[in-house]
Amino acid sequence: MTPPNPQPDSDPVISIRGLRKCFRRRGGEPVAVLDDVTFDIHRGETIVIMGGSGCGKSTLLNCLIGELAVDAGAIYYRTQDMPAPRDLVGLDERSLNQLRKRFGILFQSGALFNSMTLADNVALPLREHSVVDEAIIDIVVTLKLQQVHMLPHRDKMPAELSGGQKKRAGLARATVLDPEILFYDEPSAGLDPVTSAAIDELIMDLSRKLNVTSVVVTHEMDSAFRIADRMVMLEKGRVLKIGPREDFLRLRDTPADRLATREDRLINQFLNGFTAGPLTDAEGLSEYEKLLVAGEE
């Protein structure tokens, strides 16, 4: 597949082209959970990937970070040290790990190591992927913990932290190598509304201060509308709509009977959480297919 030729005003840092990912049923029949997914992620923006349960958003995230092999298509990265876009698909493990140093990941649970203090958790990527002195590591860890307002807790173990504090700690670790791209997997999941809003404020603050590109997978609509520059709506593994936040706000706030297309009415139903509409009327994925899309099989 031919690499994209980005226009000067768009400057995509990730270009996804014709992405297809299949899992197999127990009988061996393939199930396409991503089907011809194509869009760009621009440098410095916050893009939210959303959709109902089983739409493919978690699978897409795992493909973007190289955790899942794809069946077709390309994922071109162009970080600042790359003279030309480079396809993640097909990279050997060594090259893939080099690319991964340019992005950080905040996992849904925080994914802290329970046997390490908070400071040691944050320091781990530096110890694994750099040769700097421990004194420098301590300075960097201190700065990163200050950024997420967790410095007073640096010597605590993960079991002593609340859910929101674990998310903050995970974010400090995700930024410790100064990544160009941050991936967030359901950053607001399991948090109360006040803590969720605080995490959203932190995501926006870090995006401004670090000038990173943020890719957020979420089904929390309040959070999505707070942080997004652009939004991507998936349905059954396909891109239903991509556009600026304002487009989705308009669709959310327009009465469904004034929307001309099924796609717009479906998005309206999803964004408002209505129980009746094309999203629930249409024939959906089987329960087993939903498990496949969620990566649980």
In short:
The chain has 297 residues and is an alpha/beta fold.
Structure overview:
By secondary structure, this protein is an alpha/beta fold. It folds into 2 domains: 1-45 and 52-99 and 226-297, Rossmann fold (3-Layer(aba) Sandwich); 107-178, no CATH class. It contains 11 helices and 10 strands. The chain has helices spanning 57-64, 93-100, 118-129, 134-147, 163-174, 193-210, 221-227, 245-253, 262-272, 278-281, 287-293, and strands at residues 12-24, 30-42, 46-50, 72-77, 86-87, 103-106, 181-185, 213-217, 230-235, 238-244. The longest helix is centred in the C-terminal third of the chain and has 18 residues, at 193-210. The model is unreliable at 2-9 and 285-297 (pLDDT under 50).
Tally of structural domains: 2
Q: Provide the low-confidence segments as ranges.
A: 2-9, 285-297
First-last Cα distance: 30 Å
Tell me, what's the shape?
A: globular
- Tally of DSSP helical segments: 11
Mind describing the biggest β-sheet?
Answer: 6 strands, mixed
Q: Which topology of the largest domain does CATH recognise?
A: Rossmann fold
**Structural category:** alpha/beta
As a percent range, the share of strand residues is: 15-25%
CATH architectural name of the largest domain: 3-Layer(aba) Sandwich
Helix content: 25-40%
Average pLDDT, rounded to a whole number, is 86
Q: How many DSSP E strands?
A: 10
How big is the Rg? 20 Å
Give, in spatial order, the strands making up the sheet with the most strands: 6-7-8-3-9-10
- String of helices and strands: EEEHEEHEHHHEHEHEEHHHH
| CATH class descriptor name of the largest domain | Alpha Beta
